[in-house]
Design a protein that fits this description.
The complex is a heterodimer.
Chain A: E1 2-4, E2 8-13, H1 17-28, E3 33-36, H2 53-58, E4 71-74, E5 82-83, H3 99-102, H4 112-115, H5 117-125, H6 143-157, H7 184-195, E6 201-202, E7 212-213, E8 219-220, H8 246-252, E9 256-259, E10 262-270, E11 273-281, E12 287-297, H9 301-310, E13 328-331, E14 337-341, E15 351-359, E16 378-385, H10 404-414, E17 417-424, E18 433-441, E19 447-452, H11 457-476, E20 481-484, E21 502-504, E22 528-530, H12 545-565
Parallel strand pairs in A: 1-12, 2-3, 2-12, 3-9, 4-19, 12-22
Antiparallel strand pairs in A: 4-5, 6-15, 7-8, 10-11, 11-12, 13-21, 14-17, 14-20, 15-16, 16-17, 18-19
Chain B: H1 2-16, H2 22-25, H3 71-84, H4 94-97, H5 99-107, H6 110-113, H7 138-157, H8 166-177, H9 188-204, H10 216-221
The chains are: A alpha/beta, B mainly alpha.
């Protein structure tokens, strides 16, 4: 028994940053918007006792309930894909605000090079710089075209930063708020990188340096540097999140309704149009159909791709033939780095999720790759995010992992260790992709998404090169011992790495090689939009959210235009 | 034994992927790192309430047990966690911190029941890179692991685990860590990692969860727990010592 609800102008699947931005922009234009969120309502008032490492960081209080739905994983097509039974390598969010609630707030614009990576790489290094199995391609949009949308997102979020990164794309305006505090620990990084001839700058932050009212009239408070950002919500309303900005902005119009505990399982399609979505009430398991003139998929990367696959929309990518676009170009991130052990105790337990300094001298194509066997690079940062005692037990090499020596070394070094870390770009590879699993299902009986992924030679070369650079910086910072990260071998889904999954629903200029156009409108269904880091044709050397926010504003413009004019937007 | 343990600790971590911890584990050699945390003298409370030594006769003493059904298996856990995180001049070990009580309570709840995790079949062994693939719940692993510790003590030393010398207990724990103990439905390496991690969680989680007695784990480490803000301290050039605070009123 399925209940069909009254039709609305726009339905979004998931209410995080992208769902919230689409809702706010469309509702302000008078469109009736419904947001379907499978998790619960939550907000700042729920985070007053959030300084609890065990509950939030170790037991994943804010994350998806994997007993209901997970993914399956294998390193290559020869392996049997098995369920990710526990969270590890990346953390899937759930509930109002999605990952935008438990993020750190490091807010970047991808580089001009990222958007035209194929063209610019070919021009400079020739067409064979990377072997053909690396499926890099341009994004169908340039940095300059996307700049107004970056600007828009940064103003909504009130980003704190300083405009002195010589390698960044040009900005139409300065950051809305000044950078965060340049703490003594960050000054060490600044001095060391300057000594090395690099160009350090304050990391753009969504933990705001001062109170700020955004153009929608929403208030974001000043960060208190409590050291509990990533995996936590902010009790001060000082880490910009959807539930304190775009969601209330949308609600104030009177044109927006969020339905909680609503788990979408299918996008309904008739001919070349979609007609709405089917969802389960997660409490009662009742089934509903929400008809809509426009459907926007605004859930996480993995779920956006899954919904298209289970709904039979678009052609599934096949690594054997290279045909199909859905599930293609899944990418992740490469994490080179170095740690340094110091004699003196430092205030490593204080901090904020996006408190840091960065150099981009080894990111994008800022350095010559002519003699290197990889492209792109990494931002290299030292962040002071607040180390917590359960998950932070730094020990020098050759220290046992338990017992008396472990205890002494891990306690000694908890406040005596700093790290310089890179976020390495991840190039897509023919064998890294998403599909539907043939064996395992979620609690609604829908197949799980299947991930086939491994690190590549490009990844290993990039990792090794950037790790050396990180070690040089740490040496210059005066560490008594510098320990470089291990070379990477096979991707392992167990240890936490990063929640920067990308691809699978990539954007582009050509329906033959992309899933959506540069308004994030689906090539095969004009009233269906798919937006998020799934649109990235490769992953760059930064956190994704700034670029995701820009794409969401671009998408909102597309939805509004489509609602008025119809037709393909490109 | 010390050397053996050292070698293994490297292999254990390298086997995973070294990405999260890699920066701290990879090449490079460090000379003897002897310096102690100088901030605190020994504040160990060697007689944490409810340790079996002062038992009231009820399993788990005055604090009681929520998962384990008798003192014998609880006491094996108690001793094993103490070997992993021993008392020393820095402060209390796992027993003094109440780590085994923490684990006992966790095993009785969603952690022990894996209730937020995907536990549907079919089950296959899989590659190490694919993670947890056992049909066993954590509390089943702990119960079996503890039984096997006792069994090993009997077969190797003809004694109860809790009556062994520290070095003998370490030998058994190392055998688990080196995956030499046959377990049903899981591996002893996997169980050992779980036990090690749970011990650290019990040492450093907020005392509201039953471990980290009197916040002594935090004091040893220099972590102040729940503090509203550091906006007035973060510019300090010097290390700032702050008396820790728990989320609970009574800790």
């Amino acid at each position: 028994m399925v209940t069909t609800l009254d039709s609305v102008d726009v339905v979004t699947v998931g209410v995080g940053w992208t769902g919230g931005i689409i809702a706010a922009e469309c509702a302000k234009e008078g469109l009736k918007v419904v947001g379907l969120e499978r998790g619960r309502e939550r907000g700042t008032e729920d985070f007053s006792i959030v300084h609890d490492e065990y509950r939030y960081a170790v037991r994943y209080e804010l994350m998806q309930d994997l007993s209901r739905e997970t993914i399956t994983f294998r390193n290559n097509r020869q392996q049997r894909a098995l369920p990710m039974r526990q969270m590890g390598s990346f953390l899937l969010g759930e509930g109002l605000g999605g990952s935008g609630t438990h993020w750190n707030g490091q807010t970047w614009r991808f580089l001009p090079y990222d958007f035209q990576i194929k063209t610019m790489t070919d021009e400079k290094y020739g067409a064979n710089k990377l072997p053909a199995e690396y499926t890099i391609q341009d994004w169908g949009i340039t940095y300059d075209e996307l700049e107004p949308y970056f600007d828009r997102f940064e103003k909504t979020a009130g980003i704190s930063g300083e405009n002195n990164n010589p390698f960044a794309g040009e900005r139409s305006s300065d950051y809305p708020t000044p950078p965060m505090k340049k703490t003594p620990l960050l000054q060490r990084f600044e001095t060391a990188t300057s000594n090395l001839g690099l160009s350090p700058f304050m990391l753009p932050s969504a933990n705001l340096s001062e109170a700020y009212e955004n153009p929608d009239g929403q208030q974001i408070n000043a960060c208190q540097y409590c050291g509990f950002c990533e995996r936590f919500g902010c009790e001060y309303g000082a880490k910009t999140s959807p539930e304190i900005t775009v969601v209330p902005a949308a609600r104030e119009t009177g044109n927006y309704e969020i339905k909680f505990n609503a788990n979408v399982v299918e996008v309904m399609k008739e001919g070349d149009r979609v007609t709405g979505v089917r969802y389960y009430d997660t409490v009662t398991f009742e089934e509903f159909i929400q008809p809509a003139n426009v459907v926007v998929l605004t859930s996480y990367v993995l779920n956006n791709a899954k919904l298209l696959m289970v709904s039979g929309i678009g052609q599934q990518y096949d690594p054997e033939t290279g045909q199909g676009t859905l599930g293609k170009n899944y990418a992740y991130q490469i994490l080179p780095g170095a740690s340094g052990f110091f004699d003196e105790q430092m205030n490593t337990f204080m901090g904020a999720g996006a408190l840091g300094m960065t150099v981009d001298d080894f990111n994008g194509d800022a350095f010559d790759h002519g003699d290197l066997d990889f492209i792109h690079g990494a931002s290299l940062s030292m962040t002071q995010t607040g180390s917590r005692p359960i998950l932070h037990n730094p020990i020098p090499p050759d220290t046992p992992s338990w017992g008396a020596d472990f205890k002494r070394a891990s306690i000694e070094n908890y406040t005596r260790t700093l790290s310089v870390g890179g976020q390495g770009a991840s190039m897509p590879h023919r064998e890294n992709y998403m599909a539907l699993d043939g064996t395992y299902k979620d609690v609604y009986g829908v197949p799980l998404l299947q991930l086939t992924y491994n690190f590549t030679d490009q990844d290993r070369a990039l990792h090794s090169y950037i790790t050396e650079r990180a070690g040089e910086i740490m040496q210059e910072m005066g560490a008594k011992t510098v320990v470089a990260g291990n070379p990477i071998s096979d991707y392992d889904i167990v240890p936490y790495q990063t929640t920067h999954n990308t691809g699978g629903t990539i954007m582009g200029a050509d329906p033959g090689t992309s899933v959506v156009n540069n308004f994030l409108q689906h090539w095969d269904a004009e009233n269906l939009f798919v937006v998020g880091a799934g649109n990235f044709a490769h992953n760059g050397g930064y956190n994704p959210t700034g670029t995701v926010g820009a794409l969401a504003y671009r998408c909102a413009e597309g939805v509004i235009r489509y609602s008025r004019e119809g037709g393909s937007l490109v | 034994m010390a050397d053996k343990n050292k070698n293994f600790s490297r292999r254990d971590f390298l086997k995973t992927s070294g990405i999260a911890t890699g920066a701290l584990i990879g090449g490079g050699i460090i000379g003897g790192l002897i310096g102690a945390n100088t901030n605190r003298q020994d504040t160990a409370s060697t007689n944490a309430p409810g340790t079996p030594q002062e038992s009231t006769g009820a399993p788990g003493g005055v604090r009681g047990l929520t998962f384990f059904k008798n003192n014998a298996e609880f006491e094996i856990l108690n001793q094993a966690t103490e070997r992993i995180f021993p008392e020393d001049d820095l402060g209390p070990g796992a027993i003094g911190l109440g780590v085994a009580y923490f684990i006992d309570q966790q095993l009785a709840g969603s952690y022990g029941e894996n209730s937020k995790e995907y536990m549907q079949g079919p089950f296959f062994e899989g590659e190490l890179t694919q993670g947890y693939q056992s049909r066993l719940k954590r509390n089943e692993m702990f119960r079996q692991g503890i039984q096997l510790m006792q069994q090993e003590a009997q077969s190797r030393f003809n004694a109860n685990f809790v009556d062994l010398e520290g070095g003998q207990m370490d030998e058994i724990l190392t055998a688990f860590q080196e995956d030499e103990i046959q377990m049903r439905g899981t591996t002893s390496l996997f169980f050992f990692r779980l036990l090690r991690q749970a011990t650290l969680e019990g040492a450093y989680a907020d005392p509201i969860y039953g471990g980290n007695h009197n916040m002594e784990g935090w004091r040893m480490k220099g972590f102040p727990g729940h503090q509203a803000a550091y906006i007035n301290e973060i510019d300090s050039e010097d290390f700032v010592e702050i008396e820790p605070q728990s989320l609970g009123m009574e800790h």
